[in-house]
Amino acid sequence: MPQAFAALYEAHARVVEHYIRLRIDDVDLAQDLTAETFTIAWEKYSAGTAITRGWLLKTARNLIGNEYQRRTRVRERTQRSIAAQLVVAQHEIDDIADVELKAAIARLRPADALVLKLTYWCGLPAAEAAQFLGCTTVSYWQRLARARVALRAELGAPGTAIL
Fold first, then answer.
1. 134 lies in which domain range?
2. pLDDT, tens digit, for every residue of 28-45?
């Protein structure tokens, strides 16, 4: 290593590291970025570029910016990963709730299960569901009310508004 570059390093390494440490709250990373700053400086020095304290600080600033961008990317990836895991967990919870609901409906009288399925799975309006069942709309609403009460009892939560 030429004496001139060694003198440059001795004169500016602490200033560069301090500059980086003020912006990056990680001693090891600040040392790594300082070393990277001087590696880049050595390459430029070898190619004939004049290296000054300002040049070193500007290079360090660029490396700090790269670190900030890296941290942002990591944070965004982490947030996306957590969001995806929450979606999967919610689907698992929904699946469990779905299984419990389907099991409870399976334990109902077939007539009650049919009224619930026509209403909530098929989405039929009251008049169409009544026509399908061969009863009046008023009778359909009474059947639906009885089926809801039976379902609440099967789910073990009497009086709660599930449906």
1. 108-155
2. 999 999 999 999 999 999
